[in-house]
Amino acid sequence: MQNSDAKNKTTLYLFYALIIAVPLFFDYSWLINKPLFYESFYLPKRFVFQLLAALIFLYAVIHTIRRGESSFQKNPLVVPVLLFVFWSLLSLFNSMNIQVSLRYYSLFLPQIALFFLTIYLISHADPPSPLSPPTRGGEMKREMMIEKIINVLIIVSTISAIIGILQFFGLNYEHGIKWKIPSRLPDKTDIYSTFGNPNFMSSFLAAVFPLTLINLWHNLNDSKKRLVNIISALIILFCILISRTKAAWLGVIISTGLLLIFVIKINIKGRAFKKYLKVSGIIFLAVIAIITGISLILPAESNPILAELSSLTLSNITFKGRELMWFTTFNMIKEHPVIGIGVNTFRLNYQNYQGGFLNKHPEYIPYLGSAESPHNQFLEITAEQGIIGVLLFLWINIVFFKSCIGLINQIPADEAHLREKMMVIGIMAGAAAIIIHGLVEFPLNLVPNAMLYWLYLGFVMVIQNKQEVRSQESEARMSLPISQRLSYFIIIISLAISLFFIWSSLRPLVGSKIHRDAWHLMQAEKWKEAAVSAKKGVGWDPLNDELHLFLGVANYHLTNYSESLKEYAKAYELYPDYMIPYNIGLIHKKMGSLTLAEEYFKKTIFLRPNLPEPYTQLSQVYKEMGKIDESIDIFNKGARYRKF
């Protein structure tokens, strides 16, 4: 029993480390005023996630070998998840850059592994003897384990929300410590907590908020827990409101409505049902009070809610920008409907497809821009993995929500099982918030948010497995004995896989550190030192497009034009930014290759038709080529975009 308790504690501590470190971790070097990383929020989180996922994986392997056998319990999500992974691998054959696509799997596969590891490790918490029926004690261990993980997750979200609220009032760890009630509305990008972006922050908080409400509902009679959960719920909600993220607001509204519907649907009789209705009314009044308080305390010009609601017009630049991205993405899908353009290559294709769309619809030129994602998770999956890919993703979610609803109907509503029933409702609502946010953003591209999604799916499958055992159905468990020779082989392979994923996340992290150093050298116009630094960074992270761009710029200033052109070409392969063909055009013009200069300036105009500089340069090229009429014509076309 003590050995079992030690294993359960180890499992819990590993999950605690994961859900604490990933949301809260980023580059803390600001404490010594020496920022280390260029991407100080995203790459450190990715590294920590992959490191901890590898440790959890290795622990699961060791746990299995010590048991002397591997056992797998069937669950309805196994087939759709594995098919989704398999189909994403097939999209490699259509990728325009296989290296970029392969980098995606170094992050995607640990996420999928986390789903299976969650099921495996929690399902094996204090497992019953194979010679005896499962006991309620073993079930309680698993239920308590999920509950403890969720409680820590709520604490982490509350801390993240507090940091976001402090940023709203001017206390920002990155920009110097200041505290004041803002006389004007802070810029939206100033409120990001430890996530680097308000949309990323609010998406994470909205996915945890339903679990906070469930805790509040279920612990209403416990004064201490009631107070803690009320404070957490209000802090998280307040931060979501001031984040000015309308998609997160919508996610909170729909997920909270979902909670209410299913709490009423479970038909709890007597005092418990009245308790849930009472708390629901209190929560509703608290939300109204928070919104009213924000409106009364803050001046109208610094009210985040009024600011966002006033922009709800179809002519708003955000809406028009979304339209442009979605229409452009539809064109991608039309050309590659079955297998897609390849995972992680949306950003490599977007600029060219956008240029083609703008050529036919110039009315969207004022709203053009660069895009890492179409800001719609479903459209992105369809574009990169084809219609079959998005259907498999939809299948995963349909099976998940169907399982949740089935559990809500099957689990008894008595006091012994009520907590478990409510937990399923909260997890389902949290996952729904992520999916809703995915309609206008890309939460599954973000490490903390994707971690939540796959954890939620795993939790529900654990509870479903328990329910099947409780109802005395067949466990549908396959067991395979592990020989000593096989165990050595498994350990070696597992260690190699773990080290690979850790190394694959460490390389871009080191490259990011060198990127920052090279940037400072570029700012100081120390071109030789910058070239040496950027080349070292490329050695660590050859897929860093900006390091190649730095090399192109540095070599240009060092008059190494052939080397500069080579690095610009590599940078363009990794990210077809509109300024790269413009710079290439400048080099060819300087070298006297006017035909090539013409080609690249035209390419720049195609990608960014509202940029005046390429029109001016192309006009000069035509003038040098003796094409006076073309020179005047292109100069006049660019005149509309010049500011005098």
**What is the approximate shape?**
globular
Number of helices: 23
Q: Tell how many strands the DSSP assignment holds.
A: 2
State the end-to-end CA separation.
80 Å
Overall pLDDT metric: 84
**Looking at the chains present, what oligomeric state does this protein adopt?**
single chain
Measured by DSSP, the beta-strand proportion falls in under 5%
Low-confidence stretches: 128-139
Structural class: mainly alpha
Order of helices and strands: HHEHHHHHHHHHHHHHEHHHHHHHH
Description:
With 644 residues, this protein is mostly helical. It has helices at residues 2-24, 42-67, 78-90, 98-123, 136-168, 198-218, 223-242, 246-265, 271-297, 304-309, 317-335, 346-360, 377-410, 418-437, 447-470, 484-523, 527-540, 545-557, 561-574, 579-591, 594-607, 612-624, 628-639; strands at residues 69-73, 477-481. The protein is built from 23 helices and 2 strands. A two-stranded antiparallel sheet has the order 1-2. Helix 16 (484-523) packs antiparallel against helix 17 and helix 16 packs parallel to helix 18 (545-557). The longest helix has 40 residues, at 484-523.
Main attributes?
23 helices; mainly alpha; two-stranded antiparallel ribbon; 644 residues
List the helices and strands and how they pair.
Layout lengths: L1 H23 L17 H26 L1 E5 L4 H13 L7 H26 L12 H33 L29 H21 L4 H20 L3 H20 L5 H27 L6 H6 L7 H19 L10 H15 L16 H34 L7 H20 L9 H24 L6 E5 L2 H40 L3 H14 L4 H13 L3 H14 L4 H13 L2 H14 L4 H13 L3 H12 L5
Antiparallel strand pairs: 1-2
Helix pairs in contact: 1-2, 1-5, 2-4, 2-16, 3-13, 4-15, 4-16, 5-6, 5-7, 5-15, 6-7, 6-8, 6-9, 6-14, 7-9, 8-14, 11-12, 11-13, 13-14, 13-15, 14-15, 16-17, 16-18, 17-18, 18-19, 19-20, 20-21, 21-22, 22-23
